Amino acid sequence: MKVRRSLRSLKSKPGAQVVRRRGTVFVINRKNPRFKARQA
């Protein structure tokens, strides 16, 4: 999982879901798990 400032480019990938857990924003991508990230 990458830690990134901006998740905008990852949000637009096919299969991406934006999830908020405990105040932290995550991007989960089941189609392509390389694009999993957490916002710093």
Tell me what you see in this structure.
GO terms for molecular function: structural constituent of ribosome. Keywords: Ribonucleoprotein, Ribosomal protein. It comes from Streptomyces collinus (strain DSM 40733 / Tue 365). Belongs to the bacterial ribosomal protein bL36 family. The chain is mostly beta strands. The protein has one domain (2-39). 10% of the residues lie in helices and 45% in strands. It has one helix at residues 8-11; strands at residues 2-4, 16-21, 24-29, 37-39. A 4-stranded mixed β-sheet has the order 1-4-3-2, with no helix packed on it. A hairpin with a 7-residue loop joins strand 3 (24-29) and strand 4.
Order of the strands making up the biggest sheet = 1-4-3-2
In which range does the helix fraction lie? Answer: 10-25%
Distance between the termini: 12 Å
Content-based structural category = mainly beta
Number of strands: 4
Protein name: Large ribosomal subunit protein bL36
Keywords: Ribonucleoprotein, Ribosomal protein
Family: Belongs to the bacterial ribosomal protein bL36 family.
GO molecular function: structural constituent of ribosome
Key features?
about 40 residues; about 10% helix; about 45% strand; mainly beta; 1 helix; 4 strands; four-stranded mixed β-sheet
In brief:
By secondary structure, the protein is mainly beta.
Strands, helices and their partners?
Layout: E1 2-4, H1 8-11, E2 16-21, E3 24-29, E4 37-39
Parallel strand pairs: 1-4
Antiparallel strand pairs: 2-3, 3-4
